[in-house]
Amino acid sequence: VFRLPVDVAEDPFGNLWVAQRDSGTAVKVSRDGSWMANFGPELPGNLGRLERIASVSVHRDGDVYLCDEGTRRVLKVGYRD
Fold this sequence. Notes:
By secondary structure, the chain is mostly beta strands. 0% of the residues lie in helices and 46% in strands.
């Protein structure tokens, strides 16, 4: 269930990435609607956290880009199978 989705993008494999503004997460959903993974709000290492995702974009190679208004940065999430 999405509370406040603000953007959606399809990756080259037919999966959807949904950006949720209020929770600072991006959720990966399969073609059949099943939850596959989520990213955020806590980030690995010393990257901090996502605060207010404004948009999500997917490059044709599968890399996902998240624009976070709260931290004023664009984060690249490399594709992993």
